[in-house]
Specification:
The structure is a homodimer. In chain A, strands 2-1-3-4 form a 4-stranded mixed beta sheet, with helices on both faces. Chain A is globular. Chain A is 55% helix and 9% strand. The first copy, chain A, is of the alpha+beta class. In chain A, strand 3 and strand 4 form a beta hairpin.
Chain lengths: 205, 205
C-alpha cells in the first residue's frame, strides 16, 4: 500500500504533559515503520479536563506521589529523558498558539519541530513556557523571531484558533493527553503503545 | 535463585474492576515464568477513590465512552473475555469479605480461586455480586456453603478485616486497581504489564 493511501496518526498533546513528551519521542519512528505520517494537535489539558470533569493526576492525594514516580519510570522504560520542571504543571497556551500558527503558515513539519522543541524545553531543560522571556528565548533558539512569536501568542486570531482546536478535540471525544487516533480509533495514554503497534501491524483487533 | 527467595507479587483488585479482571487472567502465568508467586488483596475502589479524591472512569463525561470501549479492546488485546455486566460498577464488599475469610482460614490458593471465580462471574457471566441470591449461588457453585458465606459477609469480624485491608492499602499508597507491588515497586494498571515484565526479567530500571 502506498504511504499516501494510509491515514496519518493524529496525536493530541499538551506541552505540560510528561506522558505526551515521552510519546512524542517514540511516535515518529513507530509511525514510519508502518508507513504512516503523524499529524500533531496541541491542546490545553485544562480545557479537556474541565469538559470531562477531571483534574491532573498530580492534583490528587496519593495518586500524585505515584504519578511523579511513574513519569520518570515510564520515561526510562522508553529510553527517554524526562525531568519534571520546577513549574509543573505549567500554562502552555502561548506555546500552543505558536504551534497552530506554524502549522497554518509553515506546515506540519514546522509545527512538529516546535512541538518537540517545546516538550524538550519543559522536560529536559526545565523551561517554564508560561514565562514570556523564556518562551521568546526558545523561539529565538528555534530560528523564529521572538517578536513575531510574541505577537502571535497575543493575537486574537491565534487565541481563537487554539480555542477552536480545543473545542474540536473535545467534540471528538478527547479528554486527556497524549491521545492517538488511528483510522478513527482513539488510544489514550503513552501506555497504549503496544495496542497502537498491533493495530498498525495487523489492523483492528 | 530459589522460588522461596523471591518475594511474591502483591496484587490489589476490586471485583468490579474490568482491568483487574483482565490482569487477573494473565498474572499467574507471568509470575510463574519468573519464579514468583502472587499474593492477592481484595479491596474496595470506593474507599481508595475517596482517599485519593477520585471517581470511577465511567463517572466522567467523555472519558466514560472511551473507557467502555477500552475495557473491551484491552481485553481482546490480552485474549481475555470481558463483558461489562448490567450492574456496573457494582458494590463488592460481600464478595471481598468472603475473599479475606478464605485467605485467613484456607490460605492464599483458596482466596485466589475465589477471586477468579468472582471476577469471571462479573465479567463473563453478568452476575451482580451485590445481589445476595446471586452471591449465594456463586458460593455454592464454588463448593462453599452458601449459608456459611452469607454469615461471613454479615459478620462484623470480616467487615472489620476488609476495612483494615482497605486502610492498609491506602496507607501503602494504593489509589486504584489493579495495582501490583513487585519488590516494593508499585505499578498501577493492567497496562503496566510490559514494565512489570521487564522488572521481573531484569530487575529495577
Amino acid at each position: 500500500m502506498l504511504l499516501s493511501m494510509k491515514s496519518p496518526i493524529d496525536f493530541y498533546f499538551d506541552f505540560s504533559s510528561p506522558y505526551s513528551h515521552i510519546a512524542n519521542e517514540w511516535l515518529d519512528a513507530l509511525a514510519a515503520r508502518h508507513g504512516r505520517s503523524v499529524r500533531r494537535h496541541a491542546l490545553l489539558l485544562g480545557a479537556t479536563f474541565q469538559a470531562a470533569e477531571l483534574k491532573s493526576p498530580v492534583s490528587h492525594p496519593i495518586k500524585r506521589e505515584y504519578s511523579m514516580h511513574d513519569f520518570a519510570r515510564s520515561a526510562r522504560f522508553e529510553g527517554v529523558v524526562c525531568r519534571i520542571p520546577a513549574v509543573f504543571p505549567q500554562p502552555t497556551q502561548n506555546a500552543a498558539r505558536v504551534f497552530w500558527w506554524l502549522s497554518e503558515t509553515r506546515g506540519e513539519p514546522a509545527a512538529a519541530a516546535w512541538a518537540q522543541a517545546g516538550l524538550r524545553a519543559v522536560f529536559v531543560h526545565n523551561v517554564a513556557l508560561n514565562d514570556a522571556a523564556a518562551l521568546r528565548n526558545l523561539a529565538t533558539e528555534h530560528g523564529l523571531s521572538a517578536d513575531e512569536a510574541e505577537a502571535v501568542w497575543n493575537d486574537p486570531v491565534w487565541k481563537a484558533r487554539l480555542k477552536d482546536e480545543n473545542d474540536a478535540a473535545i467534540a471528538a471525544g478527547i479528554f486527556g493527553a497524549p491521545t492517538f487516533v488511528v483510522d478513527g480509533e482513539p488510544f489514550w495514554g503513552n501506555d497504549r503503545k503496544p495496542q497502537i503497534e498491533r493495530w498498525l501491524a495487523s489492523g483492528p483487533f
